[in-house]
Design a protein that fits this description.
Largest sheet: 6 strands, antiparallel
Strand content: over 45%
Number of strands: 9
Oligomer: single chain
Number of helices: 0
Helix content: under 10%
Length: 111
């Protein structure tokens, strides 16, 4: 799959990269850019992807994140999540701003 999805929050532009399936996990990767992701020696960003992106299966069950990795510098960050694979053909991602749902997408997962 080559699909990507872009969502803009106040202070962060977040792009979801293509979703993959490997070794019993569904892999989600996002690239974020924006002022709210700037890190300095005296200030670390408090923007947390888990506060803004939630994942659930089409059945309604919350997707179980087993591992998360975050890296970045100078206003750009990469966020990766490994989600226990239940074998469902898609996953539902909800993007939440300060106080409202900004977008929701159903993402097909390659076999």
């Amino acid at each position: 799959m080559t699909d990507q999805y872009l969502v803009e929050f106040e202070g962060v532009r977040l792009t979801r990269l293509p979703v993959g399936r490997a070794e019993g996990f569904v892999w989600l990767t996002f690239v974020g850019r924006g002022e709210d992701l700037r890190y300095t020696l005296t200030h670390s960003s408090d923007w947390r992807i888990q506060d803004h992106v939630s994942a659930r299966w089409p059945s309604g069950e919350v997707a179980r994140v087993i591992d998360r990795h975050i890296s970045g510098a100078d206003g750009m960050s990469s966020f990766s999540s490994a989600i226990r694979d239940t074998g469902e053909p898609s996953i539902v991602l909800t993007y939440v701003g300060a106080d409202s749902i900004l977008a929701e997408e159903v993402v097909s997962i390659p076999a």
